[in-house]
C-alpha cells in the first residue's frame, strides 16, 4: 500500500480502473481447483471515487465472480485493526482479498491469515525487483505487489536556480541550503512526516538506512539498531530540529500537513511521496512550475528510501481462492497498471512503465522515482510490525523533541525492540 492519499494522510488507497482487460493464462493455485465464485475486497476508505467503476468493470466481465467492496475507515491504523479482527475470526472471516500496506505482509503471513501464492501465476518478472521482496515472508510469496512508492526530496527549483546551486545530494548540502537559503526567502528549511505515527517510522528508517544502518534482521528475530550508523541517522533528524533548519512545527506534520506547507510556499525542501509532487504541480498551486524532485540525500550521496505501496493478499479462509488469484493477476496486468498511473497518479509496480516516453512526458518525476525505488528498502520485517513501529516512532520523536539524545535513543530502541521480539 502506499501511505499516501498512503503514501495522503497516511492512508491506504486502492486506485485502479479496469477496462475489460482479462488476465491471460490464469489457472488455479495448487489445491484450489474449482475455487471460483464471488469475492469480497477489503480496503481503506476510497477517497478517489474510482473504486465503484473499477469493480463494475470486473463484475461485467466476470459475472460469476463478482466482487463486493468493503470500505474500512480512512485511517490506516483503524483499517489494520479491523482487518486483523476479522481475520482472527477464522472461517467466519468476511474478507477474501485484502489491500494491505506492504509492511503488513510479514505480520499477516506469520499469523497464517493470508495464503501462500504460486509465483508462476503472476507477472513478477515484469515488476521493479525491490517491490517483490515486500510481498514475501520466509522466502515464500504471500501477496502480489499492486502499488509501489518511494520517498523523494521535493525542492523549490526557482529559488535554487536564483541562488545558482544544485539540489542537495548529501545531508551536509541539505543542511547548508536549509540554513542559509531558506531564511533569505522567509521559508522553513526542511520537513518530512514527524508526528509520532507510521510516517515517522518511515522517515526514521530512511535516515538509519541512508547512514548504512538497519533496525531488525532475520524477519524480525534479531535487533540490529544498536550501531553508530543508526545513531548518525537519528542525529541527523534531531540536529535539524535543534538547529532550526527543521521547524518545530514539523513535529506535528503527517503527509498532508507537510504537503500543504510545501504547496503553500512555506518550505524550501520536503521529503514526501510522489503524490505531493503531483499536487504541488497542479494548476492553481502557488508553486506550480517552480519545483523539482531528486532522490533523498544521504551522508555521502543519494540516500535510501523506504518502500511504500500496497500489496494484494488472499485470505486463508476464502472459499474461492482461484477467483481471488485471478483478480490479483487482473490488477497487476499492464493495462490496469498503466491506468493506476495515468488516472490515479500512483506509482505502478511494472518496470516498463517507468521508461515509456509518453508517460515520462506526462509524469517527469518517473525516472527519479524509478531510481529511488530500485535502491529502496522495506520497513523492518516482523510478525509484530505494529509494535515495532510504535516503538520506533515514540523513541525517535522523543529524540527530535530533545527529550533524549541520539545515543540514548539508540540504546532505548535496542532495549525496547528486543522486548518486542521476545514476546
Automatic annotation (TrEMBL):
<keyword id="KW-0732">Signal</keyword>
<protein>
    <submittedName>
        <fullName>ABC transporter substrate-binding protein</fullName>
    </submittedName>
</protein>
<dbReference type="InterPro" id="IPR006059">
    <property type="entry name" value="SBP"/>
</dbReference>
<comment type="similarity">
    <text>Belongs to the bacterial solute-binding protein 1 family.</text>
</comment>
<dbReference type="InterPro" id="IPR050490">
    <property type="entry name" value="Bact_solute-bd_prot1"/>
</dbReference>
<dbReference type="Pfam" id="PF01547">
    <property type="entry name" value="SBP_bac_1"/>
</dbReference>
<keyword id="KW-0813">Transport</keyword>
Amino acid at each position: 500500500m502506499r501511505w499516501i492519499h498512503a503514501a495522503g494522510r497516511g492512508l491506504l488507497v486502492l486506485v485502479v480502473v479496469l477496462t475489460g482487460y482479462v488476465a491471460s493464462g490464469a489457472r488455479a493455485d495448487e489445491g484450489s481447483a474449482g475455487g471460483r465464485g464471488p469475492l469480497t475486497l477489503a480496503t481503506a476508505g476510497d477517497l478517489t471515487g474510482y473504486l465503484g467503476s473499477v469493480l463494475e468493470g470486473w463484475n461485467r466481465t466476470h459475472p460469476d465472480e463478482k466482487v463486493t467492496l468493503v470500505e474500512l475507515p480512512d485511517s490506516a491504523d483503524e483499517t489494520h485493526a479491523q482487518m486483523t479482527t476479522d481475520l482472527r475470526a477464522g472461517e467466519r472471516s468476511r474478507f477474501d482479498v485484502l489491500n494491505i500496506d506492504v509492511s503488513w505482509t510479514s505480520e499477516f503471513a506469520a499469523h497464517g491469515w493470508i495464503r501462500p501464492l504460486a509465483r508462476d501465476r503472476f507477472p513478477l518478472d515484469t515488476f521493479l525487483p525491490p517491490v517483490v521482496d515486500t510481498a514475501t515472508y520466509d522466502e515464500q510469496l504471500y501477496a502480489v505487489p499492486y502499488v509501489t512508492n518511494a520517498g523523494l526530496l521535493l525542492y523549490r527549483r526557482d529559488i535554487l536556480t536564483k541562488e545558482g546551486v544544485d539540489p542537495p545530494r548529501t545531508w551536509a548540502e541539505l543542511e547548508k541550503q536549509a540554513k542559509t537559503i531558506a531564511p533569505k526567502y522567509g521559508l522553513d528549511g526542511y520537513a518530512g512526516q514527524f508526528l509520532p505515527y507510521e510516517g515517522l517510522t518511515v522517515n526514521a528508517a530512511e535516515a538509519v538506512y541512508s547512514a548504512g544502518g538497519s533496525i531488525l534482521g532475520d524477519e524480525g528475530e534479531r535487533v540490529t539498531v544498536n550501531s553508530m550508523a543508526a545513531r548518525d541517522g537519528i542525529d541527523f533528524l534531531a540536529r535539524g530540529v535543534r538547529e532550526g533548519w527543521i521547524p518545530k512545527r514539523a513535529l506535528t506534520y503527517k503527509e498532508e500537513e507537510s504537503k500543504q506547507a510545501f504547496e503553500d510556499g512555506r518550505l524550501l525542501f520536503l521529503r514526501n511521496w510522489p503524490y505531493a509532487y503531483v499536487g504541488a504541480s497542479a494548476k492553481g498551486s502557488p508553486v506550480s512550475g517552480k519545483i523539482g524532485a531528486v532522490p533523498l540525500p544521504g551522508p555521502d550521496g543519494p540516500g535510501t528510501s523506504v518502500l511504500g505501496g500496497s500489496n494484494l493478499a488472499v485470505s486463508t479462509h476464502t472459499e474461492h481462492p482461484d477467483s481471488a488469484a485471478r483478480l490479483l493477476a487482473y490488477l497487476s496486468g499492464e493495462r490496469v497498471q498503466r491506468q493506476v498511473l495515468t488516472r490515479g497518479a500512483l506509482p505502478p509496480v511494472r518496470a516498463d512503465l517507468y521508461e515509456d516516453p509518453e508517460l515520462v512526458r506526462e509524469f517527469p518525476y518517473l525516472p527519479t522515482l524509478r531510481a529511488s525505488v530500485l535502491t529502496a528498502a522495506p520497513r523492518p520485517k516482523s510478525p509484530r510490525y505494529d509494535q515495532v513501529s510504535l516503538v520506533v516512532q515514540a523513541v525517535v520523536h522523543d529524540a527530535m523533541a530533545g527529550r533524549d539524545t541520539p545515543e540514548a535513543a539508540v540504546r532505548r530502541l535496542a532495549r525496547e525492540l528486543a522486548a518486542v521480539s521476545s514476546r
